Structure formats: structure tokens, C-alpha cells
Amino acid sequence: MDQAQLLQRCQAGDELAWEVLVRTHQGRVCAIAWHYLGDQDEALDLAQDIFVRVYRSLDTCTDPARFEHWLLRIVRNGCIDRLRRRKARPPRQDIPADEMTSLASQAADPEQQWLSTSRQKLVHVALQRLSEINREIIVLKDIQGLPLEQIATMLDLPLGTVKSRSSRARVELARAIVELEGGPAPAGPPPVGGFGAEAAS
């Protein structure tokens, strides 16, 4: 069943189709929420709220080809709303590696694979040290693999701003990683095939 058929069946009230849709996307939704909030339990709680919003708003998604974009916008908005209610920025402190467990879905999806190695866990800890906008761009571009044009639309920023921010965000993340490893801060951007390639794999 393709995405269009699945969405149509969900909009028609098919409970089995809705379960398939949730299972298909819950790993990604939980992972995004976790990267924004920095807390696994809160991410799981927010993911449940997000799927309630998605279910109630299914009829507003009229283009199946843009379903993932539509979903990710709801996820991002939900994360931002939660952060605002918390009246605090995402946590900046180190997160112990033993807290990096797979989230919700039992299926092997890109986010769970991304969280599977100690190097990638280190990247997640370093993400918490970034500025809010740079962390968002790294999560959306290097971890979620979204094109810059889509990120610009989601963040309501000019494409040129997102491009320049993306380069600066990678430098900031590289410095944070090196600091966590106890080495000297790098003078320039990371080489091609560095942490960004790992994150996007």
C-alpha cells in the first residue's frame, strides 16, 4: 500500500490503516521530539499528543505526496509549543550515554540506526550545546535528511540564510564534539563525510 492509499484509508476512518501509518512514522516522530526536547520520556509523551493532532487534522492534508512535509511541520510546531510551555530552552547539559535507548518503534528506521553507535550518541550530546536555530538545522538537514528548500519553508527563513546557517551549525557541532572528546577546537568546518555523513546514514 503506497502513501496515498494509506492516507486515503485513514481519512475514511480505517483503523487498521491508521495503525500502519502510526507504526510507519512513530520512530521518526519520537526521534525528532527527543532531539528537540532532550528528554526521552517527554519526547514519547509529546509524540502521543502529536499523533492525536495528526488524526484530528488528517482531512486537511490534501496532497499525499506532501504528507511527510505536513507531518514534520506538525512535529516541529508541537516541539516548539512544548518548549514554550516549559519556559526554558532545550537542556544544555550532557546526557549520559546509557540513556540513549531506541524510541517507541521496534522497526529498524533511520533514527534508531543513527542512535545505535557510541559516536552517534556523542553527536547527540553535542547537539544539546548548540544554539537553538543551529540545532534545528542539524536535526532537520543532517539527521532527518530534509532538503534545504524544505527546511527554509518549515523555519520561515530565506534559503540563503538556511544555507549559511547550515555551514555554521556544522562548525559549531564539530567544536562541541571535539570539546566533549577533550581535544582542541577545530579551526574550520568538518571534512566531507564527517559527522554529517554519519548522521544522515
List the helices and strands and how they pair.
Blueprint: H1 3-11, H2 15-37, H3 40-57, H4 67-86, H5 110-114, H6 118-127, H7 132-143, H8 148-155, H9 159-181, H10 195-200
Helix pairs in contact: 1-2, 2-3, 2-4, 3-4, 6-9, 7-9, 8-9
Would you summarize the structure shown here?
The chain is mainly α. The chain has helices at residues 3-11, 15-37, 40-57, 67-86, 110-114, 118-127, 132-143, 148-155, 159-181, 195-200.
Task: Please provide a written account of the structure.
The chain has 201 residues and is mainly α. It has 2 domains: 98 residues, Rna Polymerase Sigma Factor, Chain: A, CATH 1.10.1740; 85 residues, Winged helix-like DNA-binding domain superfamily/Winged helix DNA-binding domain (Arc Repressor Mutant, subunit A), CATH 1.10.10.10. Helices cover 67% and strands 0% of the residues. The chain has 10 helices and no strands. Helix 2 packs across helix 4 and helix 7 crosses helix 9. The longest helix is centred in the N-terminal third of the chain and has 23 residues. The radius of gyration is 17 Å and the shape is globular. The C terminus is likely disordered.
The CATH class label of the largest domain is Mainly Alpha
Q: Give me the count of strands.
A: 0
pLDDT < 50 runs, ≥5 residues: 90-108, 189-201
How many domains, as an integer?
A: 2
Q: What is the H/E order?
A: HHHHHHHHHH
Please, what is the CATH homologous superfamily of the largest domain? RNA polymerase sigma factor, region 2, helix turn helix motif
Biggest sheet record = none
Query: Kindly state the mean pLDDT as a whole number?
Result: 79
Q: Structural class given helices, strands, pairing?
A: mainly alpha
Into which percentage range does the β-strand content fall? Answer: under 5%
Task: Compute the separation of the termini in Å.
Answer: 25 Å
Number of separate helices: 10
- Shape verdict: globular
CATH architecture of the largest domain: Orthogonal Bundle
Based on CA atoms alone, the radius of gyration comes out at 17 Å
**What fold name stands as the CATH topology of the largest domain?**
Rna Polymerase Sigma Factor, Chain: A
Helix content: 55-70%
